[in-house]
Structures are given as structure tokens and as C-alpha cells.
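Ops channel
N.P.: pipeline sanity check, posting one input/output pair.
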């Protein structure tokens, strides 16, 4: 196994006004004497490992999207999308200070991380982790089908018919394939090494009623803190309607009706489309879940893009709500067709999302050791034990690789096209290190496990004592 890329370096260097200095001597550098809290970061600054960097004039190889995160500590986000990271990379940015309240919950460069990277990178060489020819062919097919169905849905005068019902379902599912297979890879920076390609394809989120920039705020935070009850927006986004988190019995976030959530949560997920297209957060691009966990979204990069987000949402509503009504009459039948399209998109997207991290024996408290001992936990291990994988390559082609959630969370900036190839190796390394890898050969097995988990999380069954053993 090759050593970590930084081990052979005698000094880790960061930039200063006079050249480069050792990271250990940062206190002696006049350029880094500014000491602030994380909340005191400016919109053109980010913090990594406690050091503040000014990115106002930084030309990032991955494009301007890096400025989206200005004003935040991005230690975990930075390391999760830079698997080949060394301290040398940080020399490209200007260090201007330190934060005094940085306390890491996760640790990197563990033995498990080093080995899984070494083995996976034997399969996917550096610089080749982006979309393959097959990926772009599938993307072309999904995009072409979507635009055809979008035009047909917006212009049809025969929606109130059996043909209209079939069209609504097909268009809804087609929209979901854009979310799964196109915008997802692109907004992870994984579709292409060319930033403009990722930027363009990333607007697929807006084509289906979402928002690229809100998605970035929510989804990248989710990836950094998967199943973290206080920091993963996905873990509490459904509250108080139902709980993904398995709270202890008597917890204030439990409700009496959660005892039935195993029955009704799928019905609620069918309304995901409605909550997406009429979400008022499109106005200021302040994603509520990301804001709740402390992500700042007031930097110039975000502010300048608010008007574009509103324009794209207005266009979506015009094409998919106004046009069907205008062409087919303002009546309940047309309303039902529009809703059917939304339900088809909702269930295709949200059911697949819910399988990923909510299943029996998933780790619902990945930072428990940190809370008990103050010792950071291995981020790579936590990603494996909070995620599941089901099926194989064919399921991957249909879901944009989201069936390979373990692999995706370990390597979020690798195109989904590669996940079927690295999955066997990932499982072997996990087994060697005693890391729990959840795999379901068929999607229905993962779904059954998810429904069972949701029922037990709602009833508190996992917290009840076993009468035969006296143990929980």
C-alpha cells in the first residue's frame, strides 16, 4: 500500500506575504494573525483545518462554484471532494488568519482511508474518474427524452385522456431520470473535468422543478455529515411529519402519529414535488436545512444568482402548470394530470433517496465516539456504515449510480459510471477492516428494510427492552 501523499513531505507549507512558511509556524506569520470565530468569516473566505483562506481572487480548477461556500468552514467538504489532497494544494490559496472555535468531529488519513483509496485508484486512475462515453450516451438519451416529453406535456390539448395519463407518468419519471442521471453527477463536479460542462448539466435540477444552488447547499452538507442528527439536513428535513432519525423514547421530537409512519411515509414522499416547486427558499437561496446547521449563504456568489434561480422557477411553473391549464381548461381533471406528473417524479426520486441511509442497522449516530470521548471518528468509515448499496450495473444505469450509495459517499466526485467497477474492491477492503457494508442484491430487499426501519424508528421499538435478555 502506498504511503499517504503527504508523509514524505518534510514541511507542510501555506502561503504568506513573503513566500511560503511551515503550517506549524502559522502563528509567527503576520499574514495569519487574524483570529476569528467561524461565524466571523467573510463571504470571500473559507476555513480548512482551522486556517482561514481568502478565495476572492482564487482561480479554482473546478470552476467558480468553490465561491458558493464562502463564509463557511469547509474542512470536511474540501477533503471529501479532493481524494488526492496534500498540503501542497492549499498553498494555492492565500492564508489570512485562523479560527478559534474549530473542533473536528471527523478525522482523515486513517489506515482504512489510505487502503481503500490505494485499491480503488488502481482501478480508476487519477484524471479518469469523470464521465465515460457510456455515461454521456445515457445522459444524451435521458435529456433528449425529457425535452421531447416536456414539449409534448406543455403543448398537448389532450391531457384529459388515457393518453394524457400515460404522458404525465412518463414525463414525471423522465424528470426523475434527469435528477438521478444528469444533474447529480454534474453538481458533484463528476460528469466532466471541464467546469462549464458540469455547470450546464447541473441546471437539470432547475428543469425538473428544483434549484441547482439550493441543491448544492443541502446535498453537499448531507454528504459531509451523513446521518448526523444535528448536521445532516436530510436526517431531519421531514420533521415533524415523520422521523428519519431514531430518537430515544420520550424525545421531544417524537409524536404519537409517528407510530404509523411506516405506513404513511411513502404517501408523504409522493408530495415531494409540490414542496419543491413552491418552496419560498428560491427567493433568497437560503436552504432552511443547511442554514439550520450553520451554513452561511449570504456571500456575493449566491446573492448574484438569486434572480436567475427565480427566473428559471418561473419558467418551470409556466411550462408545467400554466400551459397545461391554458391548453386543457382550468378544471379538476387537468389539475389531476399535473399532480399525477408530480407524484410520478416524486416517488421515483424520493423513494430511491430514502433507501440510501434509512435501513435496518444503519449507523444513526456516526459521531457517538466523538461525543463520548472527544476523539474524532474516521469519516470514511462513517460514510460506509451510514449508507447502503443494492443491485448492480443495470440498476446503476437507471438510477445514476445512486444504488451504489456506499461507493458514492466514499468518492462523491467520481462519476457514477465507475461505481460498478469499484464496488467489489470496496467490499473487500471494508471486510478486511471490519467496517460494516450493507448490500442488498435486489431493490425490494432494501425497500423492505427501509419500511421496517421507519416503522421501528416511529414506534421506538429499537429502544424497548428485550424481555428475555434485559438488553435493548
Amino acid at each position: 500500500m502506498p504511503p499517504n501523499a503527504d508523509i514524505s513531505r518534510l514541511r507542510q507549507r501555506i502561503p504568506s506575504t513573503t513566500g511560503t512558511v511551515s503550517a506549524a509556524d502559522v502563528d509567527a506569520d503576520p499574514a495569519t494573525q487574524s483570529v476569528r470565530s467561524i461565524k466571523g468569516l467573510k463571504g470571500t473566505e473559507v476555513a480548512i483545518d482551522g486556517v482561514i483562506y481568502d478565495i476572492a481572487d482564487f482561480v479554482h480548477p473546478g470552476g467558480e462554484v468553490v465561491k458558493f461556500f464562502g463564509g463557511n468552514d469547509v474542512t470536511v467538504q474540501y477533503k471529501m471532494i479532493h481524494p488526492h489532497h496534500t498540503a501542497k494544494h492549499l498553498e494555492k490559496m492565500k492564508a489570512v488568519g485562523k479560527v478559534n472555535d474549530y473542533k473536528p468531529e471527523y478525522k482523515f488519513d486513517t489506515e482504512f482511508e489510505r487502503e481503500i483509496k490505494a485499491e480503488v485508484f488502481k482501478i480508476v486512475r487519477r484524471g479518469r474518474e469523470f464521465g465515460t462515453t457510456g455515461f454521456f450516451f445515457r445522459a444524451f438519451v435521458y435529456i433528449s427524452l425529457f425535452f421531447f416529453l416536456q414539449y409534448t406535456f406543455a403543448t398537448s390539448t389532450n391531457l384529459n385522456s388515457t393518453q394524457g395519463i400515460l404522458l404525465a407518468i412518463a414525463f414525471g419519471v423522465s424528470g426523475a431520470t434527469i435528477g438521478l442521471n444528469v444533474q447529480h453527477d454534474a453538481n458533484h463536479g463528476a460528469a466532466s473535468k471541464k467546469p462549464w460542462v458540469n455547470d450546464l448539466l447541473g441546471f437539470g435540477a432547475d428543469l425538473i422543478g428544483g434549484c441547482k444552488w439550493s441543491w448544492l447547499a443541502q446535498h453537499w452538507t448531507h454528504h459531509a455529515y451523513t446521518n448526523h442528527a444535528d448536521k445532516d439536513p436530510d436526517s431531519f428535513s421531514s420533521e415533524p411529519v415523520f422521523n428519519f432519525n431514531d430518537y430515544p423514547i420520550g424525545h421531544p421530537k417524537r409524536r404519537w402519529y409517528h407510530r404509523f409512519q411506516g405506513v404513511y411515509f411513502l404517501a408523504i414522499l409522493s408530495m415531494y414535488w409540490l414542496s419543491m416547486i413552491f418552496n419560498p427558499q428560491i427567493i433568497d437561496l437560503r436552504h432552511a436545512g443547511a442554514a439550520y446547521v450553520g451554513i452561511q449563504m449570504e456571500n456575493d456568489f449566491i446573492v448574484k444568482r438569486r434572480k436567475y434561480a427565480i427566473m428559471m422557477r418561473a419558467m418551470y411553473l409556466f411550462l408545467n402548470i400554466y400551459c397545461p391549464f391554458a391548453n386543457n381548461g382550468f378544471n379538476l381533471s387537468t389539475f389531476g394530470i399535473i399532480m399525477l406528473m408530480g407524484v410520478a417524479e416524486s416517488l421515483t426520486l424520493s423513494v430511491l433517496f430514502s433507501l440510501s441511509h434509512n435501513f435496518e442497522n444503519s449507523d444513526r449516530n456516526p459521531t457517538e465516539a466523538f461525543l463520548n470521548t472527544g476523539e474524532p471518528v474516521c469519516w470514511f468509515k462513517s460514510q460506509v456504515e451510514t449508507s447502503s448499496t443494492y443491485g448492480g450495473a443495470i440498476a446503476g444505469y437507471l438510477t445514476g449510480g445512486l444504488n451504489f450509495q456506499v461507493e458514492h459517499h466514499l468518492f462523491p466526485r467520481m462519476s457514477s459510471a465507475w461505481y460498478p467497477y469499484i464496488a467489489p474492491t470496496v467490499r473487500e477492503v471494508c471486510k478486511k477492516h471490519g467496517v460494516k457494508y450493507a448490500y442488498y442484491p435486489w431493490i425490494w430487499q432494501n425497500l423492505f428494510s427501509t419500511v421496517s426501519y421507519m416503522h421501528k424508528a416511529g414506534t421506538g421499538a429499537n429502544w424497548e427492552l428485550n424481555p428475555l435478555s434485559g438488553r435493548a
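N.P.: looks fine end to end. The first helix runs from residue 75 to 81.
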